[in-house]
Write a structure and sequence with these properties.
Helices cover 36% and strands 17% of the residues. The N terminus is likely disordered. By secondary structure, it is an alpha/beta fold. The chain is built from twelve helices and ten strands. The strands form two sheets. It has a six-stranded mixed β-sheet with strand order 6-7-8-3-9-10, sandwiched between helices. The chain has one domain: P-loop containing nucleotide triphosphate hydrolases (Rossmann fold, 3-Layer(aba) Sandwich), CATH 3.40.50.300. Bound molecules: adenosine-5'-triphosphate (ATP). The site of adenosine-5'-triphosphate (ATP) has 12 residues, from helix 2. Keywords: ATP-binding, Nucleotide-binding. This is ABC transporter domain-containing protein.
Length: 327
């Protein structure tokens, strides 16, 4: 029996629903915890996830490196804060995001979330309350509508929610220019057809298969807009308390990046936002707290103005970028 494209897509969608919750969240050996998150939901509405890290050191399992990727990191992030992490390549920014998102537990030191050791919470609950937007986020061989809708799979059939998320992620314009719009299927899966149709050029499905073979490519920036739209869809679940944004904007032009940040900030209510960025300006000036990292450690933290007065690492990085515009 040959599966139709729709059947293939439906099957993929239902299996992806099961794995999507853990997208970007590789399961590592860690204490799975027993306390549901959020805890004490009957109390006043949460402003977001809060963090308290004390002397956190982290070495990737099996790494050849002799020095830890995070070294004695201590920091506090209050619920609802907008935090920006900056620092040179390899300084530990993404690693810190992975610890905050509980993709890894520290090699030593402690992490408290909302006042409790993070290991006490059911890890899948923490992941469900976390939206991680990073360059590694994947797209699936499904329609653009489904790729976005998967963010909140119970509402994947709600066209207006999916379209709203597409708009917030900045994806509407490029999608409207595609022949099949939201129904465009990315990287169609032709394998099941091909097995049956090999060399049967006269078969009526052969032509269809040939059309599907033409992979629909979208640019790096457009992919990131779809992934961003999926995160906005996730926010609709009402469960997100922590948004970690690890440089998703590297392929975005300046205007698209600005809009993405603006849209994320518009929906920040009830969420703690942590951004990793190499581009100063948009965010760093509005951040409640800037964390500047160097060689796996926090070398400075404070507001933009405080760190500029200090004339340390942050001011150095900022001035390098500012001088490029002044010339
Ligand atoms: N999966 C991994 N396994 C082993 N070492 C890793 C892994 N990921 C990162 N590292 C190492 O940990 C250190 C910190 O890396 P990390 O990705 O956190 O830095 P970063 O500040 O986010 O860098 P960039 O700005 O280049 O993205 C680096 O020395 C890096 O080589």
């Amino acid at each position: 029996m040959t599966l139709s494209q729709a059947q293939v897509v439906n099957r993929s969608l239902s299996s992806l629903k099961n794995i999507y919750r853990s997208e970007d969240l590789p399961v590592t050996a860690m204490d799975k915890g027993i306390i549901p998150y959020p805890h004490n939901t009957g109390e006043k509405p949460s402003k977001g996830m809060s963090f308290d890290l004390s002397s956190v050191t982290f070495l990737y399992p099996g790494t050849q490196k002799t020095s830890p990727s995070l070294n004695a990191v201590s920091l506090k992030i209050q619920a609802g804060q907008l935090v920006v992490i900056v620092g040179a390549n390899g300084s530990g920014k993404s690693t810190l995001i992975r610890i905050l998102s509980r993709l890894y537990d520290p090699s030593s030191g402690t992490v408290h979330i909302d006042g409790r050791p993070s290991a006490e919470y059911i890890v899948s609950d923490l992941h469900e309350a976390t939206a991680l937007l990073s360059q590694d986020s994947q797209l699936y061989p499904l329609s653009l509508r489904e790729n976005i809708g998967l963010g909140y799979h119970a509402k994947v059939g709600d066209g207006s929610l999916v379209e709203q998320a597409a708009e917030q992620g900045g994806a509407t314009e490029f999608i409207s220019k595609l022949k099949d719009g939201m129904d465009t299927i990315l990287e169609p899966m032709i394998k099941p057809f091909e097995m049956n149709l090999y060399n049967k050029k006269s078969h009526f499905l052969y032509k269809e298969m040939e059309a599907l073979r033409k992979k629909i490519d979208i640019s790096g920036g457009e992919r990131q807009k779809v992934v961003a739209a999926r995160s906005f869809m996730r926010f609709q679940s009402g469960k997100i308390k922590f948004v970690a944004v690890d440089e998703p904007s590297s392929a975005l032009d300046a205007e698209a990046e600005h809009k993405l940040f603006e849209n994320l900030i518009k929906v920040r209510d009830g969420k703690t936002l942590v951004f990793v960025t190499h581009r100063f300006g948009h965010l760093t000036k509005y951040a409640d707290q800037i964390i500047c990292m160097k060689d796996g450690a926090i070398c400075e933290s404070g507001s933009h103005d405080e760190l500029m007065i200090k004339q340390g690492e942050y001011a150095k990085l900022y001035e390098i970028q500012a001088s490029a515009f002044a010339q």
